[in-house]
Amino acid sequence: MSAAPRPGRSGLALGLVLTGLLAGAAVLSLVWTPYDPAAQDIGRRMLPPSAAHLLGTDHFGRDVLSMIMAGARASLGVALAATAIGLGVGAPLGLLAASRRDGVVDEAVMRVNDIVFAFPALVLAILLAAVFGPGAAGAIVAIGLFNVPVFARLTRAGALGQWSRDYVSAARAAGRSDLAISIEHIAPNLAGLLIVQAAIQAALGVGAEAGLSYVGLGVQPPSPSWGRMLNDAQTLAGTAPWLAVFPGLAIALSVLGLSLLGEGLRDRLDPAWERRP
Amino acid sequence: MTAPLLSIENLSLRLDGRDILRSVSLTLAPGRVLGLVGESGSGKSMTALAVLGLAPPGATATGRVLLDGEDLLQAGERRMRSVRGGDVGLVFQEPMTALDPLQTIGDQVAEAVRLHRGASRAEARRAAAAMLERVGLPAARFPLSRHPHELSGGQRQRVAIAAAMAAGPRLLIADEPTTALDVTTQARILDLLRQVTREDGVGLILISHDLAVVADLADDIAILKDGEVVEAGETLSLFRELRHPYSRALVEASALRPRPPPGTASRTVDAPPLLEAAGLIREHNGARRLWGPARPFRAVDGVDLTLHAGERVGLVGESGSGKSTLLRALLALDDIQGGAVRLDGRRFERRRAPADLRRKIQVVFQDPYGSFDPRWKVADLIAEPLRLSPDAPIGAARRRRVEAMLEQVGLKPADADRRPHAFSGGQRQRIAIARALIVEPQILALDEAVSALDVRVRAQILSLLDDLSERLGLAYLFVTHDLSVVRAATDRLLVMQNGKVVETGETAAVFAAPRHPYTRTLLAATPDLERALAARAAQVAL
To answer: What pTM was computed for the model?
Structure first.
């Protein structure tokens, strides 16, 4: 039986590799890129992939590989910050709602969540951009806000399951407050669940950041961004297809990698698998 | 002797290098009942699964399983599919999960008929109606269009039996069919199993951990331990002369001795009670209605209860009687909607439960697996209630206190560094007792604390509790559905039905002369090994 591979194991490995490449490119770009991603060289514009420029150059003569490496920083940064906002705000809200289950607080928290959930993210991002000017901060807040109800609902559902367990009753009989029980008993038991969801939300965040940058609401020039690279390549796709293909691939592989990582982790952490011989 | 219906010859099962079954040999004649008895992990359920070719993937079975001469171990998967449900019917422990919640009861019973007898839809439906009528669910009162959630646990088990019997099997296997049911329901389901198998001349394999249940129903018994049959034979003669020491230990542990009535000198009736509930009311939110507020459901309805220092009181009732809800209110875990709880003369309620009161009453829950945070070490689990003490020890002193508690409940000091999953069910209940006793409470509440344990472990835990109460002068509140436990462990008892206390009195007196009809029903329905054997002997004499 041990010879049969568990589903999700190969997916998890691929997810780890892709996510590692993404994170590696982002970190490396801090200290080194083949060329300065912002350096324009009109004489070497629109070059197809070659030994000097592995992924070619764009219409300003900038090195595409360097831009994609630097763009990984923006994508990953925005996605992780937005996920952190969702987790940091949503998980405590979910814990609070579950500890006051069937009460006014629970009702209020969950209904506000429903309202946020029902509000289109793009409209909010445009709104934020109109008020504060477009930029990474606006993208982070807009995407992060929509992560909040996801984490709040998930945490509440998981925590409600834990609250009905005997060990929680035992802790209450031992005089522990609801807050102490939420922090010391319930939150650690939900950690696996939340880590998995965080990976999936980060994947969605990479996609969302690319979308916002594409319409000009994300990271602003001169910082490179995959979404804006796609936008720039739009009119040139016929003559210089690599300008559209490589940032598109970067987005697709990053989303795929983080999704596989999340789902692989879910399969590994699923207790149903542990019980099987 | 007629040719056997089922003959298991030297059945062995290996899984992951471990022997699950070792050379099990059993025979069952048509129309007879074979009881398989054993503790958890003894291999009794695995034997049934192996017969049906349902052993876990990766297991290798050797030996022969002959059903009317056909070796089922050699049969292909196609043949086995028609054996399961066709030649051999199955009834499981949990009637809620064994039925499809989305299918009507009529469809579930009819499905077996259509699959295995090739009947048309209309024929199958008629057969299903007839079968449901036979198991006591006449279509006039229980239309075929009912869904499982509209039935009680006992009624669902009747549907499961009807579905298993509908295709006209030669053999019925019932795996702990009454373990999840109340005692009064259990008695009726056992009667039904006896009746339908006898009428159709079907062989029945009854798997149970409960010796009394098996002795009541089974003509032959096999006692299993660690995958081996340690003793087998005709029921009466087997119990008359138990040869194997394990079977003797098992019988001894299941027959709990009644506790001797307390001497009059030990009663301190004049002292005020330690715990007192007066007119206690506990309501749940009922089903929500479309308009207007939800109608509350009264789970505990005006209960009075007293518990004196050092006294041992039992709270008995079937599921839904409100006994656990009452206990949670007494522990100040839930809000109450009427009446009052006083602990040591002071109000003790969820919103006013100061630490000095809370540490006077501690609790042990039923499920030895669910009552610990799986991530915590035993030392931290046991020390958790210590925060209630004003002078809680810290550091090395705390550790010594934990180790002393572990030794007091019969565990080793080194166990403090392990996590709960490393312990067996009985050991976990010892840890739960240590956790409850570390703050030196005066009352220990036990919510079905021995119900999930094997009989030998149950006897050990009960004797540990005896020992602790003598040493520490503890008062016990036993909440349980099991009358034999109450009889063995308490001085006084309260019987609850539908949220009310219907009878109260000294345990020995209530058992000798129950006054309330419900108490009499409960007593009569409680399986009793001696009574079952006497009835069987009387039958033989006729």
So the answer is: 0.81
